[in-house]
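Per your request, structure below.
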């Protein structure tokens, strides 16, 4: 029997990058994956890869910017599968902006997609996770611990993910629900390939985010970390922030 046989794992951001790698890994380890994203085409590709391997998945289109869409996502997962054991909030957006470009509207969009959606999905999933004594894995960033210039909206949203996750870890540990964060850095994903730069920005101010001697990592490098956090081996790991960045942020 595989380690997640009989378990249901909701993975957001499953159409691309690290979310796709995690969805494939959890399904390969026996979970029935609820793969969710706004990108329908990318989701189809993820679903095809999982099914080709003979593993179990259902595809769910949702928009992390919408509270009702996040709520419906959890409801659909329960309606289809009757339980939830693992929730991995991986979906997110990133970009660099001068402060004067960081309008309230832009800031609120970052908070909605990167932070509020995490709150809503965790809140709606929690009664089911209490039943299954399940776990939550939320994607923050090394930027949550090491903010940089031109990144106020992203970094504030990801710092919020760390605080939210730790708070939930303390509130729900007595119910056997574990809540941990992963702080990635330097992954070779569409997010990093298509980054929006602020015009005329001083790249020296963000140089600490990247060590030119360390190649960007394939998104598969994160999948085992997520699988560990979801596994029995991590049954005593709660409220933790796992940094996965090849040591780039260890300077702080
Ligand atoms: N790539 C890195 O080096 C890095 C570093 C630190 C943190 N992260 C975080 O890791 C997570 C995964 O990032 P990635 O690099 O794999 O990026 P990615 O762009 O490959 O994947 C992000 C996914 O989120 C989805 N998404 C975006 N907006 C959405 C919305 N409104 N509703 C639903 N889905 C939406 C996208 O369609 C995409 O599939 C993100 O939360 C990101 O902030 C990435």
């Amino acid at each position: 029997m595989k380690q997640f046989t009989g378990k249901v794992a909701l993975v957001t951001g499953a159409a691309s990058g690290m979310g796709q790698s995690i969805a494939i890994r959890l399904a390969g380890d026996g979970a029935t994956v609820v793969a969710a994203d706004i990108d329908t085409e990318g989701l189809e590709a993820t679903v095809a890869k999982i099914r080709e391997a003979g593993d179990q998945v259902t595809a769910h289109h949702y928009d992390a910017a919408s509270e009702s869409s996040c709520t419906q996502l959890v409801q659909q997962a329960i309606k289809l599968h009757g339980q939830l054991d693992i929730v991995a909030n991986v979906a997110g957006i990133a970009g660099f902006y001068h402060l004067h470009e960081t309008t309230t509207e832009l800031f609120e969009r970052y908070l909605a997609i990167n932070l509020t959606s995490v709150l809503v999905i965790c809140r709606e999933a929690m009664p089911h996770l209490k039943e299954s004594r399940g776990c939550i894995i939320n994607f923050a960033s090394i930027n949550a611990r090491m903010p940089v210039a031109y990144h106020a909206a992203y970094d504030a949203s990801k710092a919020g993910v760390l605080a939210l996750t730790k708070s939930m870890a303390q509130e729900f540990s007595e119910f056997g629900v574990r809540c941990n964060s992963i702080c990635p850095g330097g992954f070779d994903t569409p997010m990093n390939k298509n980054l929006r730069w602020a015009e005329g920005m001083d790249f020296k101010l963000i140089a600490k985010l990247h060590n030119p001697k360390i190649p960007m990592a394939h998104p598969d490098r994160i999948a085992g970390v997520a699988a560990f956090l979801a596994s029995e081996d991590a049954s005593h790991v709660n409220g933790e922030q796992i940094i996965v960045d090849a040591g780039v942020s260890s300077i702080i």
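The first strand starts at residue 8 and ends at 12.

Regards,
D.
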